[in-house]
Predict the structure of protein-tyrosine-phosphatase.
Amino acid sequence: MVKVLFVCMGNICRSPMAEGAFRAAVDATGLTDRIEIDSAGTISYHAGNPPDRRAQATAKKNGIDISRQRARQVRDDDFHTFDHILVMDHDNYRDLMARAAPEHQDRIELFMSYAPDHPYEEMPDPYYGEVNQFDLCFEAAREAAEGLLAAIKARHM
């Protein structure tokens, strides 16, 4: 079983959409029973809350229901549990690298590195932006999810 964790700051916008996009890609290939997927935030402020309503609406518009997800903060055991920890931006990367033991730091990567043809190096945070920014993030997440899935299949399957 390959375990994948998506991480943003609050776990209510970017990482839930990334989780949803990746889950849809995994489901479409019939690998659901071989890949475990979760998301978390670097802060606990939104713990227990569902994704932002705009993130839910954007995912739903794209045929994906993320309404049952609940925000949680990254736990220390996540660094041991997950094979791949995909962060949305450089701040998330620095936060997790500071927390992870050296032997787990190679599991932490920028999610957008799996979408090399996309113009974003980081997943832009749509929280304070307009609704269309959620659309842009979701499209970026879908592209990176496809790249990540291809890499996981090549490496683990």
In short: The longest strand covers residues 2-8. The mean pLDDT is 96. DSSP finds five helices and four strands in the chain. Helices lie at 14-28, 53-61, 78-81, 90-99, 131-156.
